[in-house]
Amino acid sequence: MRTDQIKLFQGTNDSELLIRKLIGSSYDGITITDPDGRTIWYNDSFLRMSGLLPEQLDNFTVHELIENGGLENSASAESIARRETVTMAVTYPTGIEALISATPVFDNDGQLIYTIGNVRDLTELNKLKQQLDETFALTKSYRKTLQEVQLKSVDGNQIIYRSSSMEKIVSLAHKFSVVDTPILITGESGVGKDVLANYIHFISDRKGQGPVVKINCGAIPEHLLESELFGYEAGSFTGAGRQGKVGLFEVAHNGTIFLDEVGEMPLSLQVKLLGVLQDMKIQRVGGTKQIPIDVRIIAATNANLEKMIKEKNFREDLYFRLNVLSINIPPLRERPEDVFVLLVHFLDLFNEKHHMKRSFSPSAIDQLLSYHWPGNIRELKNLVERLMIMSDEDVIDDSLVPTKIRNTETEVYDKEDSTPIYDKTLKDLISDYEKKILDDYLKKYRPMKRCAEILGIDLTTLARKKKRHKL
Q: PANTHER family given for it (predicted)?
């Protein structure tokens, strides 16, 4: 830089020399420009980051440097024009990414006399951020891998999933498993509520202390359900055994009791269950002794308990006792990305069980993936086993797939232009099929962010495809 340009430091004393040295040795780039945009002072760090030469800074204003391509843009030029502090991010020809702040300096009369620019090198910070993002992604991958290992090592109790919604549910299960608070699992029939209950027990500390005991409250007659749950004393009723009987709550001591279809429990028993939840003691039918128990209670239902409360078919106080922690499992139609991994899982399961080597043909897989599975995982599991047994070949052909599933395939003719598909190019067919899928999913899943998650694509990608297909 030319010494005749350093007007602001003329007549320097020791303090000013110290300030010059301090600024000159700063890791941040520092520039000072006059009201015309001429650079009158700069340090070595600015030269290093910007890649500009001293001759360029000494002989051209920031406006001229922008015009001749020496600078892409200038915070100092913007600050001079707007007479206010300006901050912007730039990438210099050196490849260095920087954050520039230019601050105007005014005299006592309000006239602009200098603009001070501060240039912060973001390259290292961005590298650190990238490394941090990669670390987070790796941690997430390790966590998912660890969960998969845990799933496969929990005495055969597995949760097979690929969707983000099920990933959140598995994460909740791990969080809930460390406490003994009651859990209410809701969801349609066949979504795997019992599998999740087993999983929670087997990843908890209770696994090695007691069993997991399941009872379907809707499958046992009302007059027998109480004695099944709480047991009975000898001779307490006609037909009672001479030795009496231990109830399932006692069997589940130190473990977990799973009350499936709890919405089917009679009101008279709901009162007794509420008492057990409050006191952790049971009383056998025909007995007078209070028996202390230590159990984890997990209840499940596919019924709308809140509606049942309004209709006086379920006790509100029991609902609040059971619903301290809650998990809702979405139906399979809302997480279609889980269908394929479940197909593969059940295929492997039944191949091992029946000593087979079955597989699905691509066309059969297409049909199964396009089905909406109203019976959820239970329907899928039963169908896979049936198809494997019915098939005479190792490759299961689409001809064995039930008619109700085959009928969900795309029609041969396009509904808009009635053009036979064999008159269209592959690109057009793929585009038409994509449009149909997007149209169906956008109508079914709201908001768009949820729809994008279900489809497994970014929100911006979904928005672009929606615009392209004019949906």
A: C4-DICARBOXYLATE TRANSPORT TRANSCRIPTIONAL REGULATORY PROTEIN DCTD (PTHR32071:SF57), TRANSCRIPTIONAL REGULATORY PROTEIN (PTHR32071)
> What's the token pair of residue 340?
């394929």
Residue written as tokens 């951020």?
A: 129
368: tokens are 């199964």
pTM of this structure: 0.56
* pLDDT confidence of residue 5: 45
Q: Name residues whose C-beta falls within 8 Å of residue 321's C-beta, 6 or more positions apart in sequence.
A: 182, 274, 277, 278
Quick one: the chain helix, strand, coil %, rounded to 5? Answer: 50, 15, 35
| pLDDT tens, position by position, 185-244 | 999 999 999 999 999 999 999 988 999 999 999 888 887 888 899 988 875 555 555 567
Classify burial at 239, counting beta carbons within 10 Å of its beta carbon; exposed 0-12, middle 13-18, buried 19 or more: exposed
154-330 in CATH: which number?
3.40.50.300
Domain 3-121 identical in fold to domain 154-330:
no
Q: How confident is the model at residue 367 (pLDDT cuts 50, 70, 90)?
A: confident
Q: Provide the β-strand partners of residue 31.
A: 42, 117
Percentage of residues in the chain having pLDDT higher than 70: 83
Level-2 CATH architecture, domain 336-367+374-406: Orthogonal Bundle (1.10)
- What is the pLDDT at residue 418? 42
- The answer to whether 210 touches 255, Cβ cutoff 8 Å, is yes
What CATH architecture applies to the domain 421-468? Orthogonal Bundle (1.10)
* Domain ranges, ordered by start, for the chain: 3-121, 124-151, 154-330, 336-367+374-406, 421-468
Cα four-point dihedral sign 65, 68, 71, 72: positive
Which pair of structure tokens corresponds to residue 432? 């038409």
The pLDDT, as a whole number, for residue 422 is 47
Give the range among 2-6, 235-239, 283-287, 463-467 with minimum mean pLDDT.
Answer: 2-6
CA distances from 29 to 20, 125, 193, 316 (A): 13, 16, 61, 67
- Which of 1.10.10.10, 3.30.230.10, 3.30.450.20, 3.30.420.40 is the CATH number of 3-121? 3.30.450.20
